[in-house]
Amino acid sequence: MNAQLTPALSHDELDAFWMPFTANRQFKAQPRMLARAQGMHYWTDDGREVLDGVAGLWCVNAGHARREITEAVTKQLGTMEFAPTFQMGHPIAFELANRLADLAPPGMDRIFFTNSGSESVDTALKIAIAYHRARGAGQRTRLIGREKGYHGVGFGGMSVGGMVNNRKTFGASMVPGVDHLPHTLDIEHNAFTRGLPQWGAHLANELERLIALHDASTIAAVIVEPISGSAGVILPPVGYLKRLREICDKHEIVLIFDEVITGFGRVGKPFASLAFDVTPDLMTTAKGLTNGSIPMGAVFAQRKIYDAFMQGPENSIELFHGYTYSAHPVACAAALATLDIYAKEGLLTRAASLAGEWENAVHSMRGLPHVIDVRNCGLIGAVELEPRAGKPGARAFEVFLKCFERGVMVRQTGDVIAMSPPLIIESKQIAKLVETLTSVIRDTA
Ligand SMILES: Cc1ncc(COP(=O)(O)O)c(C=O)c1O
Q: What is the pTM (predicted TM-score) of this model?
């Protein structure tokens, strides 16, 4: 019998919190409460240990409850809990920007701070549009996203995003002047590919079609996730991102990589753009920046973009954009401590050394009942299940629930089970994750 860690909440006490991206009534009828976390594990309110197969929500890359981060945050709270960054500064904001610039892909050494992935995306979209105006091409306002893309929940991110449930309610309120590339998921050609699929680079040429339709002179930016996470782990075909880069260069379109989940070591290099050797003009990050401990995001910009704004009278504000909590000192302290851990423990490249073992482990699920695809890259894995007739997502949700009951946390999106464990995962934990998921899939009709 496990000890109860926190008091169980009554039905009434569950009502007030309107939970995000959650089936509220279903959850509140049968809550899944987390009460404590350490290393690779959560503990439920009733004291059950749960292996974290998703790094919280793709963010706790260095594992839970890292003492160094707690200490840095505590110290900063005691020194200066808040300081504005509008027309004022504080040293660790600059220190953090420099540290991030050192990690960044070539030339991406100008950093704008936000508080989340959604804010990073909306910031990057605004920077792209304002950049063109600053260089005398103010008619370039059109944005190109991609089907099945997820770029958070701001109006900009939602509009360039391509997940129908996130969009359909808000149809007429979308940002105007947005178009979408086709997604790159093709199970017919690429099922059970290990790593990046060989088929599909030509899908990037669809950008030329959109340019022919709208004219390059109207297009500000293209935004894609190097690897789509939220739509169920969709990998870029070999050569696809390079082709997008070439087309954007040819037509002077800003290329934005949304690295909110791929940033900070997820695919074996600090950023996916480094792993795939394609450098964007703007890069959005959040999540792993502070190991999920304090909300923070950052947009990385090529210096040429920043420089384009640095003109006109010196007393003029160059970009009318920012958040009260941009470069919040406590978040900066958390991020600096996180970067120290990443450096000391080699976590930003650890996924590369585990990738082979991880790949074999997740692909061992090929052949299980209802499994129609397995995908992997770095420390990301996905198992796609055949949907139940007329009940999309039901089978995968049942698998998610049973895994949780058996002590493993995975993520369900549609009929895909996604895994993205903390980068500190050990072999025996990879084995437990995959063994549990395997047994659950076998037991699920
Ligand atoms: C690629 C991508 N962009 C943006 C976001 C939004 O981040 P947040 O939830 O921090 O606003 C996410 C969140 O999962 C994401 O995966």
A: 0.98
